[in-house]
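Researcher: Re-running this chain for the archive, since the previous output was lost when a drive failed. Same request as before.
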Amino acid sequence: MNMQRKPGQGSEKRIGLGPALVTLVWLTTMAVFWIRPYGYNPSALIRFGSQNSYYKPGLIPSRAVILENKGYDGQYYYYASRDLLAQKKNIPAFRQQRIGLPLIAWLLGLGKPWPTIIAMIIINLVVASLSTFVAACILHGRGISNWWALLIGINTGTILNVYFSLTSSLMVFFLVAGWWAYERDMSCRTLICWSLAILTRETAVGVVGPVVLWELTRGRWKKAGVIALTAVPFGIWQIYLWQQLNDLAMIKSGGLLTLPGVGLFQYLKSLPTGPLSKSILLAWSNIAIAVLALWSMATGIVKAMRIWSLEPLILTLWGILLLCAKFNPLWVESITGLGRIAAPIYLFMVLSCHDRVDLNSKLLIVVSITLGMTLSFALMGFPVPGFFYV
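Model: Regenerated structure tokens:
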């Protein structure tokens, strides 16, 4: 595979088609395997849990798969789609603030339960492919092979988003679409995309904020002001939720962070030791995320020193942010939480590629894709049966 190409080669319509199709086929195949134990019932990916304190059986359609545990976050976004304005207070403000996925699923599902469930699943499959397509187009314009964009579609964050019906993949799509518009000075499209990204998941602020600061340091005050407006819809939504639910949702998001390395150090102290077993393997698997964060941070710093540009600086920032995350002693909470937090890291591994892709960047991207593929198979119980808890 030729990983270096000149701009303009090939049909413009086919630039990102290959990587996007590979992403769509991979994720769809994995999704089919994951719902196989549940009689191919797609609602299994929503992860309804009967032991969850927010369990709402009256909102769940008949024949939906309900697990005998706490389930996972996909159920919160489904509940949010049944109460978009939080009038019934079905879920906490921390979850309700991520209104992008519930709103779009509700619109596509025409407000009906089963179509909304199907829409949530299809959205995550399609937006991962579209993100790959857009990133491939960006790389092509820089004279770099569009196949590096595969990382956008096949990484731990995207895999977990499909497996649990989460919000990060939709956020990444809005971020990369906004980045495409940002590079072309399409202020209105950038404003729309990044506003939706922040409404989909608040961590998108960690991308938009640095862009505003970058524009300010360049003396482009008007452009910085326009981009800063992306936070206005989110701010209005936060105020509404505060009035409706009497809770400041964004503050809870900040509670997931600590000082750099502190969470990792505490996690390392809690790691079990002894003969190789399932629990040992599961616990130590989280170290891969920490290594990825350190590697990304170092790569971003080296790139920024060589080519002073925005993308490697954001890559560095997200490497640091990931090291600030609280590693939960419960391995499953760590790898799912960190996998979602890491989503922008993968995006900026790709966007940091400019005139060439150096060996270190190639290795980082290949290892990250391999990590995503490994997680895909692990979720099917290979080589460890029952790798995940749901």
